[in-house]
Amino acid sequence: MFLKALYVAVVIAAIFVGYKGWGEHQALAAMREAPQGQAVGPAEDEADLVIVEFMDYRCHACRAMHDEMEELASRYPKVRIVFRHLPVFGKPSIKEAEFVLAAGMQGQFKTAHDLLITRVAPISDVEIRRISEDMTLDYDQLLLDMKGPETGETLLRTLDATAALGIKSTPSFIIGKTVYTPTNGLPTVDDLERMIVEKTR
C-alpha cells in the first residue's frame, strides 16, 4: 500500500510540474503579443529578440526606467519591446492602463505611453478629454474602448500571466524566455544590453 501511495504521489507531482511548465510556456507566449499596439520596434516575426516590460505608470521605478528603455530601443532597432500593464497601485493605475490601451486601438499607443510615463500625477478624467483632443483621438470611441472587452481581456491576460510566472512587482521583464525581476536596484541600459547579447548570440 505504501509503495502504491508513493507511486500515486509521484505521478500527481509529475502532472503538477508538467502543468505548471505548460502554464508558464503559455504565459510567455501570450505576453509577446501586443493586441492594442503596446509595443515598439519591429514586428515579432522580424525581431531578433522580444523583451516584455511589466510596468505601471504610477510606479516611480518604471518612470525611472523610461530613458533606459528608450536608449535600448535606439541601440537595438531589431529588438521588439512589448509593454504589459500590471496595475499594482490600484484604480489610478488601471485607468491609465485603460487609457493607453484604448489610445493604441487608434494607433496612438506610443504617444500616450510617452506622455504618462513622464508625469508624476495620475491622469484625471478632465485631462483624458483634453489629451484625447490634443492627440486628435475620437474621444467617445476612446471612452468605449477603455471599458471595452478587448481592453479588459488584455489586462486580465496580463494578470493571469504574471500569476503563472510568479511576477509580483514592477518593473519586471521577460527577456527572450527568461523572467527577470530586478532585486538590487534598477538595471542600466548596459545591464540590459549584456542580457540581449547573451540571448542573441
Major sheet size, sense and barrel closure? 5 strands, mixed
Helix content: 55-70%
Q: Separation of termini?
A: 52 Å
Mean pLDDT over all positions: 88
Helix-strand category: alpha+beta
Query: Quick one: CATH superfamily?
Result: Glutaredoxin
Q: How many discrete structural domains?
A: 1
Describe the structure.
The chain is 57% helix and 11% strand. Strand 4 and strand 5 form a beta hairpin. The longest helix is centred in the N-terminal third of the chain and has 30 residues. By secondary structure, the chain is of the alpha+beta class. The chain starts with a helix and ends with a helix. The chain has one domain: Glutaredoxin (3-Layer(aba) Sandwich).
